[in-house]
Design goal:
The structure holds two protein chains of two kinds. Chain A is mainly alpha-helical. Chain A is built from 13 helices and no strands. The longest helix of chain B is centred in the last third of the chain and has 16 residues. Classes of the chains: A mainly alpha, B alpha/beta.
């Protein structure tokens, strides 16, 4: 109880880390609903990896003398530009190839492993601060400063606004693109909006809280919520709710027992999935006709 | 058999008895070629959909019926030729796709599916234009799906899904309703309900275009039939187009597409 009181105090030392986790916990699962429903979960693993490669590439180019940003630009901005550029490029490539015949899972798998290898090579080739770069690549949620938190609040706030304001359009183009055209909506435009939201979400997330937390929150809360709700909008809300509670409980456990924050968040989110799976299985058993008394079977 | 007037220059048309004036045209395909990746499935064909008519597209699988459908809807742009909407604005289309095309992983409720039909009139954050519960209920009642709002779409049977998709199309308040195989794979009760609903909608002034493999359905509702065959269209009255000889001529012997129901 003392720990909880301490965490909730306004002057709590790690307040930024807590808030950053909560913000990511709200937005990532909402985005993740589209990953789950569009059957592109594996892309959710590959994109954070590609984003990391983008960060490493940006630093490598900068340190090799390719100053595509002013020299005094803060490292985080440089990381953001690298991460965002490569992520959006990858999403664009995947979107263009999506309608082509061939194995799209194979392409995503290839992108994942190549991005992982390139990240390591870019870092190894960088003449400056390997250890420092590694910290940026895996995200350092505990070290988030006030400026970064402010930026996160603005960016994730805008993303959340887009996701909620245009939920109908994003659902329509994901579920039934032909009906979207019939109803006068531009499928290409709304697909691009969704992909840009995904790209920015992942880039910021990787840079701040790290790829593990981003992927964990993209996938686990929606998978858990999928087992307990009916309807896509409730699925989005419950996913976000599970994400934010995972972030809070994960932070509490991590602080209380001195555990690494990212993995703790992910394990808590996974526990929600276990609970939801048991709930789903229990409910199915309850309504299974085989378990009802024979006299009840004809009444439904 | 006579050649078409210039408006439907490449669609062979049977002359119709009577000579009563045709209702005004709603949408027309003028000498279009349409297909995928630059390869035309239909070559220089023309077709006009008139107000308050029921037009059925028939033909073997792969003949281009659905391609023609998508061109009418503006989903698939023609390679050559023009798609023209008559009247001041584009007509409002209601589209009932083949239900197998929808991914059942989406946990959408019947209410969510039907509401999609009203999205044309929605602004961001704004509530749906009419009292949405009433709107959904009113669309579900005539298709025999009253009270299904909270059911999951992916838990419905094939026939039940068909009814819900028709309700979604009706919520769009269409002037032209396009039905893609509305009675294929449904039970007799649903087939009967769909036929009766189509008749009601025709009496209400709607234009209906349907693709069907079910000749029983077509016979009961279609006034005009267009055979889509070997990249060309042949059209005429339902009575002329649904003779045994015509049906035999249009089907490719020995192909699996020959499994027609009657």
């Amino acid at each position: 109880m003392d720990t909880l009181t301490e965490i909730l105090r306004p002057d709590f030392l790690l307040r930024n880390a807590l808030l950053a986790g909560l913000v990511v916990g709200v937005v990532c699962p909402w985005v993740g609903v589209y990953f789950v429903l569009r059957r592109i979960i594996f892309l959710g693993v590959a994109l954070p990896q590609i984003s990391s490669a983008g960060i490493a590439l940006a630093f490598l180019l900068h340190n090799l003398g390719w100053h595509f940003l002013p020299h005094d630009v803060a490292e985080r901005w440089m990381a953001l530009v690298g991460s965002l550029s490569l992520t959006l490029l990858a999403i664009l490539g995947m979107a263009l190839l999506e309608r082509r015949p061939g194995n799209s899972e194979g392409r995503i798998g290839a992108a994942f492993i190549v991005a992982g290898a390139l990240s390591i090579l870019f870092v190894a080739a960088d003449p400056f601060g390997e250890a420092h770069l590694l910290a940026l690549l895996k995200g350092d949620i505990v070290a988030i400063n006030q400026d970064t938190l402010g930026l996160m609040l603005v960016v994730y706030g805008v993303l959340f606004l887009i996701l909620t304001a245009f939920h109908r359009e994003l659902l329509l183009v994901s579920y039934d693109p032909e009906i979207a055209i019939t109803l006068g909506r531009s499928v290409t435009f709304w697909q691009v909006v969704l992909f840009v939201v995904v790209g920015i979400n992942i880039s910021f997330g990787v840079m701040t809280v790290g790829p593990m937390v981003v992927f964990g929150f993209l996938v686990l809360p929606p998978l858990a919520a999928y087992r307990v709700v009916r309807g896509v909008l409730p699925l989005c809300f419950v996913s976000s709710l599970l994400g934010v509670t995972s972030a809070f409980i994960g932070f509490y456990i991590s602080y209380r027992y001195d555990l690494p924050l990212g993995p703790t968040d992910v394990v808590v989110a996974a526990l929600w999935l276990v609970v939801a799976t048991f709930y789903h299985a229990g409910r199915r058993l309850m309504v299974s006709p085989r378990l009802r008394p024979l006299g009840d079977q004809g009444r439904a | 058999m006579t050649r078409n007037p210039p408006r439907e220059a490449n669609c062979q048309q049977q002359s119709t008895a009577g000579g009563s004036p045709e209702p005004p045209a709603l949408v027309s395909l003028d000498d279009i070629s349409v297909g995928y990746d630059g390869h035309a499935v239909l070559h220089r064909v023309s077709l006009v959909v008139h107000e308050r008519e029921c037009l059925a597209l028939l033909g073997p699988n792969g003949s281009g019926k659905t391609t023609l459908f998508k061109t009418l809807l503006g989903i698939l742009p023609p390679i050559a030729g023009a798609l023209r909407y008559h009247g001041a604005t584009r007509p409002r289309f209601g589209y009932v796709p083949q239900r197998e095309r929808l991914d059942l992983i989406f946990p959408v409720t019947v209410r969510e599916v039907v509401r999609m039909g009203a999205y044309r009139r929605c602004r961001p954050f704004a509530p749906l234009p009419e009292a949405s519960h009433r709107m959904v209920a009113e669309a579900l009642a005539p298709v025999g799906a009253k009270g299904w709002e909270s059911r999951l779409f992916n838990e419905l049977s094939g026939g039940e899904r068909q009814r819900v998709l028709i309700a979604r199309a009706l919520v769009a308040q269409p002037t032209v309703l396009l039905l893609d195989e509305p009675t294929t794979g449904v039970d007799l009760a649903t087939e009967y309900a769909v036929i009766e609903l189509v008749k009601d909608l025709l009496r209400g002034g709607l234009a209906i275009v349907m693709v069907s493999h079910n000749l029983r359905t077509v016979e009961q509702v279609a006034e005009r039939v267009v055979w889509v065959h070997q990249g060309q269209l042949t059209s005429g009255s339902a009575a002329d187009m649904l003779t045994a000889d015509r049906i035999r001529d249009m089907l490719i012997p020995g192909s699996p597409e020959g499994r027609w129901t009657r």
